Every structure is written in structure tokens, then in C-alpha cells.
Amino acid sequence: MALDPANVGREFTSDRSYLVGRERVREFATATGETSPLCHDVDAARAAGYADIVAPTTFPIVITLNAMGAAVTDPSVGVDWSRVVHGDQRFHYERPIVAGDELTVRTVIESIKTLAGNDMVTLRGDLYDATGACVGSTWTALVQRGA
Amino acid sequence: MAYVVGTTLPTLTVRLTRADLVRYAGASGDFNVIHWSERTALAVGLPGVIAHGMLTMGHAIRVVTEWTGDPTKVVDYQVRFTRPVVVPDDDLGAEVTFGGTVTSVLDDGSAVITLTAVFDGASVLAKALVTVKP
Prior knowledge:
The complex is a heterodimer. By secondary structure, chain A is an alpha+beta fold. Chain A is built from three helices and six strands; from the N terminus they run ββαααββββ. In chain A, strands 1, 2, 3, 4, 5 and 6 form a six-stranded antiparallel beta sheet that branches. Chain A is elongated. The termini of chain A are close together. Chain B is of the alpha+beta class. In chain B, about 25% of the residues lie in helices and about 35% in strands.
């Protein structure tokens, strides 16, 4: 069943903030092969002017994918997560994310299209720090294969 | 740093094994079954267990971050996932080769780098664009 385009523009805000943990950043860096000292060594990160180690480029997906999953599997939207594949992904940074940041996600359904019998949902996730400043955004296009 | 259009970045070859997929699942929290269960992957029509697209994307950006030496220079990064990277249950895993070329330099000195990712003779990422600060 095609997803309802009436959902375009709907917003979902995470009810819990995400505390970026130093060890989680190191584990993610190791898992993706990022060896920069900025992502592993607190002294190196501080010497470069950061409060703590810096999250690797694709780290925000850890935060936004869960938030997006919760949004699109809401029964009113109706995405079947088991039929979803990742189509496109984009990250945009206002500033680097560092360990100790406490972030909340606002997810917006930007578009819903049907292509060749598959539904494509594009979601934007805006990440806000504890001061309310936007640190960056992610865009995730999910393709729900036809049943 | 001053970027020059046409500059080719050093290529990077990565071998992804099942252990790498398990490690990424734990580090990212993405426990989708198709990334570790052959039985489930085959049942949903895939050729076998596939790497997380985000794992491929995470490795691809190393072409840029190892070249600049500073991951915080990346201000924008996007890809389209076009083909799955199938990871066999052996010690060799799947070999993916990444490359990059500076394709434009913007007025403020930032550069756009176009990345490539090849697995099994075919491209697995399209529209893979990275914007880096000077």
C-alpha cells in the first residue's frame, strides 16, 4: 500500500536527548576505520581546540536513524521497517560534534514519492545541542520495496 | 589548504569481513538482521549477508579525512547507495576500493570532492560528494 503523501511536513521531536559518549565515539571510529587522533585522543582534540574527542563524519546516523525509525513506523505514517532499504544519505555540519554534547533530534518528513512501485520517504533530522543551537542536519532517503 | 580541481586523492582498499559487520552493528546500534544472518538475507531476496550501507559510507570518507588529516574539515557529505556489498562468511571478506577527485573549488576556497567506491567490478556508491573547508 502506498504511503500517504499527507504526511509530508510532519515533525517528530525526540523525547529524550542523546548524550554523545567518548567511548561510543571511539568505538564508532574504530568500526569505520577512522584513525584521526581527533577521534580517539582527548589531548589531541583539546590541543586542536575541541572540548573532547570529535565524532567521525557519519556518527550522527547513530542518533538520527533511531529517531527516524520511530517517526516513520508510527502507525499514522505506516512504514514497514522490515521492507526498507537505505537509498540516499547526506550529512551537513554547522560545527563538529564532540563527546559530551547532549543532542536532541527534530525529524521532518520532507517528501514521499512512489517510484516503480516502491515508496521513497526522505527524512531530515536536525540536531540541536543543549543551548538550542543546530549543530547539523542529516537527510535519509528510505525505499520501501513494494509488498 | 588550497585545493586544485582535478587533484586525485590516494585510493583506499578495505576488506570487510563478517567480523567488521558485527563490530559496526555494535558501534552504530544498527542490528538489522540482513547484516549478520545469511538465512534472513536470503529469505528477503538478497544474494547473502550485506554490509551496512553506512559502513561503506563511513569507510569511503577516509579517502578525504586521511588526505586532509582533519575530519572536521568535512562540512557536507552525501551518497546514494546503488548496489549491495555482499560479505561472504570467510576470512577474505569483501574488497571495496575507494577513490576521490577534487571536482570543483568554490569561491570561499572550499572544495567538492567526488568519491568512487568499487566492489566486485561495479560501483556501489553514486552521487558521492564531499564538501571540505579550506
